[in-house]
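Input structure tokens:
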């Protein structure tokens, strides 16, 4: 059985279902159901089963999403751009945080390296050992909570929703989804640098307490703004849209 999810990781599930329903409107249900695609149903069922057996939430989420799309194709004429829409329920599952735990370590390590480079450039005396920093005698530990792995599912879900609104029906939508991962890294690294600067200014106790929580909201805000900006940059111009 897949390991029990922390409460922080279950929130994207609830938000994702609401977003999927809202962005899929208007729902048009068929009076006469169509025949399902056996190959697609079989692939979704196998992926879901192997995910449960192998304790891989990624496969479980993939299988569940495929079965959902298969069910909708039988009973519903919507939503529009179904494959792009399916990414919203797919990213609702926190498979990145659960299955790719090693990614959190690299987020922390790279965040510590960027902080070292930044504060060295600003003239601070700094030493780094892995994810541990010593800045002007102040110890700063980039702990697991700073990896952003609890936030990453929400960040990717937000990006998938923004991309669906602005880029659904275009090939650039899939490029946008790929770019969400480096965008999430940039947002989380910026959060680490800001929290480190706050610790230097007002002390580590303040930075690890109240501000640490608000720092997470800062990342969400940066990610949302970055998603909108990136999607608008990728979005084809009016002239390109008419020519295509």
């Amino acid at each position: 059985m897949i390991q029990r999810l922390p409460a922080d990781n279950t929130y994207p599930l609830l938000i994702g279902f609401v977003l999927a329903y809202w962005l899929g409107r208007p729902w048009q249900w068929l009076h006469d159901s169509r025949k399902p695609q056996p190959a697609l149903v079989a692939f979704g069922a196998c992926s879901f089963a192997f995910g449960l057996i192998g304790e891989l939430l990624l496969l479980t989420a993939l299988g569940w999403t495929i079965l959902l799309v298969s069910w909708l194709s039988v009973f519903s004429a919507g939503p529009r751009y179904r494959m792009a829409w399916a990414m919203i329920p797919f990213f609702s599952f926190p498979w990145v945080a659960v299955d790719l735990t090693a990614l959190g370590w690299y987020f922390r390590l790279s965040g510590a390296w960027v902080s070292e480079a930044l504060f060295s450039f600003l003239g601070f005396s700094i030493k780094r050992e892995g994810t541990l920093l010593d800045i002007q005698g102040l110890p700063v530990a980039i702990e697991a909570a700073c990896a952003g792995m609890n936030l990453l599912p929400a960040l990717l879900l937000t990006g998938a929703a923004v991309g669906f609104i602005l880029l659904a029906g275009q090939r650039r939508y899939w490029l946008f989804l790929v770019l969400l991962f480096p965008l999430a890294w940039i947002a989380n690294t910026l959060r680490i640098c800001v929290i480190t600067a706050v610790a230097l200014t007002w002390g580590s106790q303040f930075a690890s307490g109240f501000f640490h929580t608000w720092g997470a909201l800062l990342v969400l805000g940066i990610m949302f703004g970055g998603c909108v900006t990136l999607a608008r940059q990728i979005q084809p111009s009016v002239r390109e849209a008419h020519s295509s």
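The chain is about 70% helix and 5% strand. The longest strand covers residues 126-129.
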